[in-house]
Amino acid sequence: MRKLYMLLISLFVLFLLAACDEGDDASSGGDNASSDGEIVLDLWHFDPGARMEVYQEAVDRFEEKHENVKVNVLQIPNDDYKQRVVVAMSGGNPPDVFASWGGGWLEEFVDSNKIKDLTNEDIDYDRFIDVAVKNSTFDDKVYGLPLGIATYSFYYNKEIFAEHNLEVPETYDEFLNVVDVLKENDVYPLALANQPKWPGAFYLMYFADRLGGEDVFQSAYRRTGGGFDDDAYVQAGEYIQDLVERDAFNPGFNGIPYDSGQGRQLMYTGEAAMMLMTSGFVNNVREEFPEFEEKMGVFGFPVIEEGNGDPSNISAGVSPVWSIYEETDQSELAVELIDELTSVETAQGYVDKSSTPVAVKGVELKDEYVSIFTEWINKANSIQFPYDQTLPPELGELHKNTTFDLFGLEVTPEEAAESMEAEAKKIFGE
Questions:
Q1: Is residue 398 a part of any domain in this protein?
Q2: Which CATH number characterizes residue 337's domain?
Q3: Nearest to 372 by CA among 154, 130, 86
Q4: Has residue 15 got a pLDDT over 50?
Q5: Could you tell me if residue 384 is inside a domain?
Q6: Phi and psi at residue 144, in whole multiples of 5°?
Q7: Is 8 domain-assigned?
Q8: How many domains does the chain have?
Q9: Is the same domain home to 210 and 359?
Q10: pTM over 0.90
Q11: Are 179 and 206 contained in the same domain?
């Protein structure tokens, strides 16, 4: 029995030693030297496909300039990414360089002294669009460099519109007429894959902006007199539920994952006629169903004539925003790396391969859709960044959850708005 006991103790000690060895080999922003003297930088991001290729090309150019430096690139699926970064930051073992969406999510790490201040680094800030850099600027200090700007708009099937004598709607009343005509002809007016909750959130943001104007969100977020229970938010919920009750969306929309492509397939096959989505939809089409592109058109969110919003206002997300872990022991190299990841050369590749506008000036716009989206950005009176990326994480998650429940008819618009405002008061203390 004693021998068995000693054997078990020995095995346990060996297990602990092995675990320690594995921990030493794990990605860390604080220990960058390999056994052969090579310097290793760890980089995390969330983008698959063509964008991932663009980042790798930038990394290759960086490595060519630094023969003794290796960059380990890890792509983590979007739905898991935030949690992975939070866990790594909490454990003191994050990557040296990582991508984010800026806004409140990044600001949480800044407030915890986890992110390097880039303000006085040797970076040409004049190459960036001002509004994009503001998304990662806190207390007048820059904590991230932006690359892409994804606009949110309606994509539609031009053949279906022509078949039913429909015109692109400019007002919301015209939009509802399009919805009703499509329903009468057994076409799903709107494709929606809302399981991850963010696709439906685009509707709430646009409705609130078109009804109340851009100041509605800023007043609630900055606590300057407004709140998330403003009439514009209640009305936005009513508009969402009106669409649901009209059967404007495909059946089961709240249970369909976006990344699986089921929602997009409804567009490709002609079962649905419209979809509100990011500019990344163009690249999805080209990779998944290129023959659909000749049928595809795009239009901005219609104006609500009784609302107070500027029709030029758009919703858009800035990503990736590249930031550096404060405690990396290769700070100078990390700055050079994110400088390359947001260079004009990288931005040109991003535009060409992803069909998405960039936050970097000086690129050639060769793509029809990128030109359209860039024109919208340049003409916008205001750009609303996603609530879940701008707000503190707890409030951003509640926004997605309450909006999801609005689509599911599980809460009333008043209940959703009151829930958001109550949480905001807890977080902001007022």
A1: yes
A2: 3.40.190.10
A3: 154
A4: no
A5: no
A6: -165, 150
A7: no
A8: 2
A9: no
A10: no
A11: yes
For residue 20, pLDDT over 60 is answered with: no
Confidence class of residue 213 from pLDDT cuts 50, 70 and 90? very high
Comparing C-alpha atoms, which of 146, 175, 130, 307 is closest to residue 236? 307
Residue span of the structural domain in which 334 resides:
24-148+319-375
Q: 410 with 270, same domain?
A: yes
What mean pLDDT comes out for the span 16-39? 52
The rounded distance, in Å, linking the Cα atoms of 134 and 383 is 12
Q: Are residues 410 and 304 part of one domain? A: yes
179, pLDDT greater than 50? yes
pLDDT at position 32: 66
Let me know if residue 9 belongs to a domain.
no
Q: What is the pLDDT of residue 375?
A: 95
How many angstroms separate the CA atoms of 61 and 346, rounded? Answer: 10
